[in-house]
Each structure stands twice: as C-alpha cells, then as structure tokens.
Amino acid sequence: MGQSQAVSGQSVSVQNANEQSAKAELEAAEHKVAQYQAMIHFKSIEAPFDGVVIARNINVGDYVGAGSGNMNANGTASELFTVADTHAMRLFVSVPETFSATLSSELMAKVTVPQFPNKVFEAKFLTIAKGFDPNTRTVITEFSIDNAEQKLWPGSFASVTLTAPADPGVYTILPVH
After folding, report:
1. What is the pTM of this model?
2. What ranges do the domains of the chain cover?
C-alpha cells in the first residue's frame, strides 16, 4: 500500500521501524532465554571422567562465582571438588640416596595399609624423578597399584617394602642360630 500512495510515507516508515524494533526485542528475548538455559545447566557439575569425589571444598550457602569456583576468604577462587579415578593408584616412595643404584624397572613394592593389616598390595615400578631432594637426600620413585576393588583410598598412609633384583654372583651369608 505504501507504493500505491494509499498510505502516507510517514506511516510506512513508522510501521517499518516498529517491525524492526519488534524483531530486535524478539532477538533480545531469545538471547535472554539462552542465558537462563546456560545458567540452569550450571546447576549440575559433571566430571570429565568416571570417579569418586575425594574432597569437597564448598559448603551450603557459599558464593560460587560464574566460571570462577568457590570464593575463599581472600576473595580468590578455589576448586569446588576433587574427583579421582581410583581403579589404579599411584604410589610415591622417597628412596634414600644410598639405595638409588638399585632403582630399576624390575623393582617391586609390597604395600600394606593400616585399614587392611593382613592384605599385601603389589605395586609395579613406573618411573623415578632422576633427581634428589636436597633437603631429605631422597629420590621420588613412582609405582602403580591395581585397585580394581577400590579398597585403597587416595591419601592413605602405607608401609612399603621394596624388592630389588639381586646381582648375579652376589651371595648373602646368614648367621646360623
């Protein structure tokens, strides 16, 4: 009707402006809905792998900033949870410098924990740090323990007995009682 001059040009311009304004309001509302959907998605936390929560660093009522974790007393962000896959555990043993020559891929560790005093867990050698801690004169040796039954928990205290392969031709003489 605007081209046929049946309606004034000003009326056509006003209607076009109203249409563009309504489109802009619709787009703004759609963006607001998308923002609320994203906020609803943040109500749940998903770990990138299956595991168990081994530490909770948040309490009911704590403020959690968007994308920044829990705000601690200093106003800095901290992690909310710590999740671990406990099907295989890593064992870190500080081996004294004097025994560093025995560290090899054939090294085995037998591990006991206080909660299972009669159970011995076998640990396989993974790697060593290739450097000594100057304060303790030890080297960190890393082992892997199969924990399919998930009896061991992260952070457990353990007693470790290391067994190194003996050099051929070396004999041990034991006293006779």
Report:
1. 0.60
2. 1-44, 52-84, 88-163
**For position 27, what pLDDT does the model report?**
95
Q: What proportions of the chain, in percent to the nearest 5, are helix, strand and coil? A: 20, 35, 45
Q: Which residues of 5-24 are buried (b: 16+ CB within 10 A; e: fewer)?
A: eeeeeeeeeeeeeeeeeeee
Percent pLDDT > 70 in the chain is 85
- Comparing 31 with 129, which gets the higher pLDDT? 31
Within the chain, strands assigned E span 52-56, 64-65, 69-71, 77-78, 81-84, 88-96, 108-113, 116-128, 138-146, 159-163
pLDDT for the residue numbered 104: 85
Would you tell me which CATH number, out of the four given (3.40.50.300, 2.40.30.170, 3.40.50.2300, 3.40.50.620), belongs to the domain 88-163?
Answer: 2.40.30.170
**110 touches 118 (CB < 8 A):** no
Question: Residue 122: pLDDT band by 50, 70, 90 thresholds?
Answer: very high
Of 116, 103, 127, whose CA–CA distance to 157 is shortest? 116
* Residue 103 tokens, joined: 């560290």
